[in-house]
Amino acid sequence: AQKVTQAQTEISVVEKEDVTLDCVYETRDTTYYLFWYKQPPSGELVFLIRRNSFDEQNEISGRYSWNFQKSTSSFNFTITASQVVDSAVYFCALSDRSGSARQLTFGSGTQLTVLP
Amino acid sequence: DTAVSQTPKYLVTQMGNDKSIKCEQNLGHDTMYWYKQDSKKFLKIMFSYNNKELIINETVPNRFSPKSPDKAHLNLHINSLELGDSAVYFCASSQHKQGGGGYTFGSGTRLTVV
Question: Which of A61, B92, B106, B110 is most buried (CB neighbours < 10 A)?
Fold first, then answer.
């Protein structure tokens, strides 16, 4: 069965610090997709990135970067020079063919608080 | 134009009532989902429909009944509401054949049962 583990329940940093959010996944599918979503206090789910299982290249987008390592089944997310506006719950998610249909399975989320 | 729209955004109702949440997507996706987010922020899939056919039906009380009149709509009807049903319900859509092509979420419906 598919599973996504975000071991860090809460992280608190001071503005301008770098922070890494960990994500470990389990799947028996050979073709799968990994996602990160941000949920700010307003409650909506904001898509950040999608990565397929055949593309292990790291990605950088502004202050955000992602490190995908199939060997350790990890898809970690780093925010460089964090800002107060980065405060949110961040979810890692996995899309694979579970049972009869593909579905998106979420980790339990990491609450990031960036202090001024 | 909103890609996935849910109504209402907030719903406060008494125990025992029946209520519906509506969801519509204008992305041309063939698959729609309902997710429940509990008070601890955990997001869990409830149902999925592909071209109006139910393809995922997780362990959910049968008081919850999804209905998909066409592939652009997936409504959630809840009978005999209980306090434990209080949560945020998210609708989402995707293009199934593309697999992980992306999931678009609605803004959520916060249901409070009193």
Answer: B106
